[in-house]
């Protein structure tokens, strides 16, 4: 059992809910350790095909708890060692972050480390590291500009300004904005659409590798990954037929 993290299974989707509302869901040492352990366990569990990360209202998280800088079990002295953000980036399964309110600094790094983000209409995002006189160590300067562009990332980090949910959608920081009361159900529905194929993890790995490459390098990596692979033609054909049937009504059948 985790003291500050609820863990629930919804069919093949594991829901991790940060539960420390009395401290604005701030990430103190024990919670960081619980989150790292839960992420690793979900990655190992063959019965889990996707993870949803969210939090108890009214905020997602205020970031690292500067009032309690004690280290959690297993944490070391280096900020570059295992953190919730690095644990999420190491996942071989998709993690959808469902942001229900304010998501600040370290929490923003956690959200950016997920596969993608769904925001409630109440979601707000900010980087306050500079205002506090500290520098990010969980990946923000690498991840935020890739999400919103380097110029807007600089502005957010230097000023500490908040970006609301709809501006975050416009910038590409989040994939969807939904009514607050529909956040979890919408995100679970999205997670349920993830197929239970090894190809999902492989594609996530290719996307991760490609972030550090030129277009030519990423294309070569994809080609290299596929060399020598064999496919079950009968299974491929059956999957194609099932996918076409599932998409019927959503797109013009003539485009398939």
Automatic annotation (TrEMBL):
| Record-given protein name | Enoyl-CoA hydratase
Would I find Ubl conjugation among this entry's keywords? no
Q: Which Gene3D superfamilies match?
A: 2-enoyl-CoA Hydratase, Chain A, domain 1
Keywords from the named record = Membrane, Transmembrane, Transmembrane helix
Leader peptide range in chain numbering: none
In its UniProt record, a GO molecular function of this protein is: catalytic activity
User: Which organism does this record belong to?
Assistant: Mycolicibacterium moriokaense
Q: Which CDD domains match?
A: crotonase-like
Pfam hit, one:
ECH_1
Q: Which family does it belong to?
A: Belongs to the enoyl-CoA hydratase/isomerase family.
User: Any keyword Lipid biosynthesis?
Assistant: no
């Amino acid at each position: 059992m985790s003291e500050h993290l609820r863990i629930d299974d919804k069919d093949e989707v594991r829901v991790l809910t940060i539960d420390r509302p009395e401290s604005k869901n701030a990430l103190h040492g024990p919670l960081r350790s619980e989150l790292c352990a839960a992420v690793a366990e979900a990655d190992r569990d063959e019965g889990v095909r996707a993870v949803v990360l969210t939090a108890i209202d009214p905020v997602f998280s205020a970031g690292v708890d500067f009032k309690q800088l004690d280290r959690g079990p297993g944490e070391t002295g280096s900020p570059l060692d295992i953190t919730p953000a690095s644990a999420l980036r190491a996942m071989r399964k998709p993690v959808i972050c469902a942001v229900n309110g304010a998501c600040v600094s370290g929490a923003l790094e956690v959200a950016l480390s997920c596969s993608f983000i769904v925001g409630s209409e109440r979601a707000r995002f900010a980087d306050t590291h500079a205002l506090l006189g500290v520098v990010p160590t969980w990946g923000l300067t690498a991840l935020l500009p890739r999400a919103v562009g380097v110029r807007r990332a600089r502005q957010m980090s230097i000023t500490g300004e908040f970006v609301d949910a709809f501006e975050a959608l416009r910038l590409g920081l989040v994939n969807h904005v939904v009514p607050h009361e529909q956040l979890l159900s919408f995100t679970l529905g999205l997670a349920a659409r993830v197929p239970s194929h090894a190809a999902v993890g492989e594609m996530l790995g290719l996307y991760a590798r490609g972030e550090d490459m030129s277009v030519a390098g990423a294309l070569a990596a994809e080609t290299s990954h596929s060399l020598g692979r064999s496919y079950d033609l009968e299974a491929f054909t059956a999957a194609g037929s099932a996918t076409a049937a599932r998409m019927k009504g959503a797109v013009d059948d003539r485009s398939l």
